[in-house]
Design goal:
This protein is α/β, with parallel strands linked by helices. It contains twelve helices and eight strands. Among the domains are: about 45 residues; about 240 residues, SGNH hydrolase (Rossmann fold, 3-Layer(aba) Sandwich).
């Protein structure tokens, strides 16, 4: 009998089918830790993003409410087609404009004011009646009535009421053409492209302070630029920035970075050191002269009255004024305005003399009521300020109109 078969010297290894799940062998415990870490970070990012957005909403709502209680406004800048450029929420909507850079959106109705179909504050402007003397007050936020909620307490409205009461046989209307933030070159553009067509009998140039203020913030030797121009530049610059990386898009990472590397950010207007800009004063006086000459060429009378400013006061006579001023403006403002703004008033008065038009010095009514609080900050009049401003200006306007 033959014995068992002998094995071959070359032992055959059975073929094993590879497991696709084991191609990349990862130890189970580290892999599990990575997964848990990613899930934890995702949940933390979601919770932090939600909490942060809610906190920001509450903080924004609280700030807006505090500002509204003080009569202040928030702003939205949009294209002429209605696309928001700076913010989605605000009390005042501005639209880009080809002539004046921006203007108030027509037919706004806010808790503070309303605008007419032309975008100016107040009621609709009627068609010119030849029997009615038409006065247009040109300027910026002080003319607009920034901070004054009651339409009836803005000085242009008060002047019209006083004129009608004192001169019932002489119909008069006083139109408020003030736009928040306008510089004198925007006043000039507004007058030449729109206001002069409305056939005014008298224009009152009640401006000057924005040229002083923005001049103090503009780089020496460069043109004076409005706050809205700077906002538009920021929008353009941000649009050209590269898209943020993965980490920069994380709410959690942004908060940690902000805490570890505190960034104070750019200073804002009103809280910067003030420096003299050589272009501000000459440009303002040039624009006043051009507006005056333009109006006279149309047979329109002119009253030049640079707006009042806190530095005109004989010291801080009212405690509330001092408090409001100190929290709103850089400490260098008072010295800057005290030295520079009289040059604006004196220069405007010289133009009035040269061109044979009327001038009203607002320093007089401030000094005659030195015990009254007129300002809510460095330049904006409170309701009391509007009242006394109207009382001071009304007789001069009546005189110029020949009533």
């Amino acid at each position: 009998m033959s014995g068992p078969a002998e094995l071959s010297s070359e032992q055959v290894t059975p073929e094993v089918t590879p497991n696709p799940y084991l191609l990349f062998h990862v130890p189970k415990k580290p892999f599990f830790l990575v997964v848990v870490l990613l899930i934890t970070l995702s949940v933390a990012e979601g919770i932090h993003s939600f909490v942060r957005s809610r906190r920001l909403e509450r903080r924004t709502a609280r700030r807006l409410e505090q500002e509204r209680e003080k009569g202040l406004y928030t702003f939205v800048l949009k294209t002429s087609g209605g696309t928001s450029l700076v913010s989605d929420k605000g009390d005042v909507v501005f639209l880009n404009d080809q002539h004046v850079l921006y203007r108030c959106q027509p037919n706004q109705n806010t808790p503070f004011f309303k605008t007419n179909s032309r975008g100016f504050r107040g009621e609709e402007w009627p068609k010119k009646d030849k029997k009615t003397k038409r006065v247009i007050v040109i300027g910026s936020s002080t003319v607009f009535g920034f901070g004054v909620r009651d339409e009836e307490k803005v000085f242009s409205v008060l002047i019209e009421k006083s004129l009608k009461e004192k001169y019932p046989g002489s119909p008069v209307e006083v139109l408020n053409a003030g736009v928040i933030g306008y510089l004198s070159h925007q006043d000039l553009a507004s007058l030449s492209t729109e206001l002069i067509k409305l056939e005014p009998d008298l224009i009152v140039l009640f401006n000057g302070w924005n040229d002083l203020n923005f001049g103090g913030h503009s780089e020496p030797g460069k043109a004076v630029r409005s706050w809205m121009f700077n906002e538009l530049e920021l929008v353009i610059e941000r649009s050209k920035e590269e898209s943020p990386g993965f980490l920069e898009q994380s709410s959690l990472y942004s908060s940690l970075k902000k805490r570890l590397f505190k960034d104070k950010g750019k200073k804002v207007f009103g809280n910067q050191d003030y420096k003299v800009n050589d272009h501000a004063l000459p440009n303002y006086l040039h624009h006043v002269e051009v507006m005056t000459r333009l109006a006279k060429s149309y047979g329109v009378k002119v009253l030049i009255s640079p707006q009042p400013e806190f530095g005109m006061r004989e010291g801080f006579s009212a405690p509330d004024e001092k408090k409001n001023f100190s929290v709103s403006y850089h400490e260098s403002y008072y010295k800057y305005a005290k030295e520079e703004y009289p040059k604006y008033l004196d220069g405007a008065q010289s133009i009035a003399r040269k061109l044979g038009v009327s001038f009203f010095d607002t320093r007089h009514f401030l000094k005659s009521h030195s015990d009254k609080a007129f300002f809510s900050d460095a330049v904006h009049l409170n309701e009391n300020g509007h009242k006394y401003c109207a009382e001071a200006l009304m007789p001069k306007i009546a005189e110029v109109l020949g009533l």
